[in-house]
Design brief:
It is a single chain. The protein is 76% helix and 0% strand. By secondary structure, the protein is mainly α. It has one domain (13-35, 48-131). Helix 1 packs antiparallel against helix 5 (108-130) and helix 4 packs antiparallel against helix 5. It is elongated and about 60 Å long.
Length: 136
């Protein structure tokens, strides 16, 4: 009887973090695109902007920055040094969850997508938190 087991290969933390950011980024785009088909979405954006005291272009700038941060993390997760990489993933993961739910819409498609994004971002934060230097 052979008691020798083949070791399982672990996924590279950098690649896994990068892939999770890709999923988050696509879901952010998907939520925005689907929301365009809802009548009154532009008016809702104007109301949101007024409620928080900014113009619609400023609101869109904030959304663009958050989208660009997710896109940047796809690459940065692969190239940053481990220590900086860990903290960048933890910090931007938490900030992105706050952004997603802070601007949440009650539309069913948005809630489903926000849940998927939150699960991915929670995995990002946990993976980054547990990332040990021996893997780097």
């Amino acid at each position: 009887m052979n008691t020798h087991t083949t070791p399982t290969k672990r996924l590279d933390t950098r690649a896994l973090l990068s892939t999770l950011w890709i999923v988050v980024m696509f879901n952010m785009l998907k939520a925005d695109i689907l929301s365009l088909f809802i009548p009154g979405a532009a008016e809702e954006a104007a109301k949101t902007a007024a409620r928080i005291g900014v113009s619609v272009p400023q609101l869109m700038l904030g959304a663009a920055i958050m989208g660009e941060l997710a896109i940047a993390m796809i690459i940065l997760s692969r190239v940053l040094r481990r220590g900086i990489n860990r903290w960048a993933n933890i910090a931007l993961g938490v900030v992105t969850v706050a952004y997603i739910w802070g601007g949440a819409a009650a539309y069913p498609h948005y809630i489903v997508i926000a849940i998927v994004e939150t699960i991915c971002l929670a995995l990002i934060v946990v993976l980054a938190w547990r990332w040990r230097s021996v893997e780097a």
